[in-house]
Design brief:
The protein is built from 19 helices and 14 strands. By secondary structure, the protein is α+β, with helices and mostly antiparallel strands. It has three domains: about 270 residues, Butyryl-CoA Dehydrogenase, subunit A, domain 2, CATH 2.40.110; about 170 residues, Butyryl-CoA Dehydrogenase, subunit A, domain 3, CATH 1.20.140; about 40 residues, no CATH class. Strands 2-1-10-11-7-6 form a six-stranded mixed β-sheet, with no helix packed on it. A four-stranded mixed β-sheet has the order 5-8-9-12. Helix 9 runs antiparallel to helix 10, helix 9 runs antiparallel to helix 15 and helix 11 packs antiparallel against helix 17. The protein starts with a helix and ends in a 9-residue tail after the last helix. It binds flavin-adenine dinucleotide (FAD). The site of flavin-adenine dinucleotide has 15 residues, from strand 5, strand 7 and helix 16. This is Pyoverdin chromophore biosynthetic protein PvcC.
Length: about 500
Amino acid sequence: MIRTGTEYRESIRDGREVFVNGDRVADVTSHPAFRSMVEIRTRMQDMAHAPDTRDLMTVTRNGEAQVLLNALPFAQADWWAKRRATDAVLDMAGGIVTRIGDETVGEMWSLHDCAAALNDIDPRFAPNIIAHVDRAVSADLFHVSGNAGPATDGTEMALRVVRETDAGVVVRGAKYETAAAYANQAFIKPTLTNWGDAEQSSRAIGFVCDMATPGLKFLCRESFATRSPAEDYPLASRLDEADTLLIFDDVLVPWENVLFYRHTRAAMQVRATLHRYSAFAFVQRNLRLADMLIGVALLATRRSGLNRQQPVQEKLSQLALYRETINAHLTAAITLAERSPAGLMMPNQSLLYAGRMQAVSQLPAMIHLTRELCGAQLALMPDAAAFRAPDTARWLDRCYAGDDWTAKDRRRLMAFARDLLNSDYAGHRLTFQLFAQGPPFAQLAAVYRNFDWEGPLALVKDCAGLSESISERDSLSAGDSTVSKWFATVAPQGVAAH
Ligand SMILES: Cc1cc2nc3c(=O)[nH]c(=O)nc-3n(C[C@H](O)[C@H](O)[C@H](O)COP(=O)(O)OP(=O)(O)OC[C@H]3O[C@@H](n4cnc5c(N)ncnc54)[C@H](O)[C@@H]3O)c2cc1C
């Protein structure tokens, strides 16, 4: 089933207890803090039905049409198609939105990979995993993710099971979940350290939570969308993704929604592979962000004529370098895609995690470089109302019009740049990029786990003439393992012969 935008909107008008600034929200689809993001998800649903975008957004599997961005990836071609479809969604949104479902649903594909191992640990929940992996596709749900919480181990609000009943487990505590207030379901699981040391910890629980479940309370942070005039804050007013503190006030999770429970080994297994797929969609957002930085820097320096100076061109090249490094990682991750243990097609893991770290760690410097290239106008430009009011507009027109630029365009560019680089929304966006897929140390740990250390080790062992005793293994395979693997398994016919 592929839902229409209208069906999605109706699905979230379920009486959920959402609060902003302490006030209860009557209808998330029309409240100014959420309506713009709900509209984007609505249009995303409708893109799967519209004749001009249907082929781009859907795939047929076993005779059934599925939303391409929900569908499990089996082939390299699926990743090219997903990349193109995500670009189409970001084009439609006119900016960057991350928690709109396509990124977070990848966690369900990781679960698919874990199903056999989790079955070995505790066979009770394997059928639930398979059912929910299928359901995320067949029911076309807006799926989000909850790992981190505000509370540390031992405090009352660390999410944990407080009792078991015939119907399921009752959980209490809190989690952060961006977009939860207008989503359908979430995959809730512990953070890396949040289940305690006990082998059978009550915190080592993973489950699918229906956002309409009684007892859930959605406490959203103050919205950037409601306090920003759209003309002055063109990004914040449309693209603020509401971060939510989701309170579980003794919420019943039916047994059929429990994916693992009381097994720290299962929790660790899930955590270690969680972003195996979703990192791709996340890094693709960084590519879009890089394009926005380049566009702003180029227009600002073209307007002033500074782009003709070589030192300025060198700064623009640094932005291009950043962009192309992300592009290269994404492209290579597809080109050298690898099979998961359960038979899905994963983006090349080492290249993807290296690309994620590169994109996230360099972003603050790239934002600052763009800010520098825009110059002080970024901070000094008067607001849109001043450009409209007759008493002030005539002065502003004289100040800001020139060459091929109207005063209006110049103000619009600087308002856009400010919301991308300088506003409180811009700062929030940067923090999101830094943390949304785990803090930087955890991202570096993913690089460590997925890089194949054997090639460099063998290289230096051979070049330096070291004895066998320095290696834990009898033989090491020299060379770049990703490239060797490609030659061994998927190289087009004839390539290997040259
Ligand atoms: C805008 C935004 C949206 C978010 N949305 C979601 C969401 O939808 N779902 C969700 O689950 N979470 C979400 N998060 C939370 C995010 O997952 C966490 O912020 C992240 O996991 C880091 O946890 P923390 O903030 O508690 O950092 P902490 O664990 O408190 O760490 C803070 C810092 O301490 C240092 N540090 C801590 N431990 C170590 C260590 N072992 N080694 C080295 N350095 C260390 C690091 O510098 C680290 O960045 C969101 C966060 C933000 C900012």
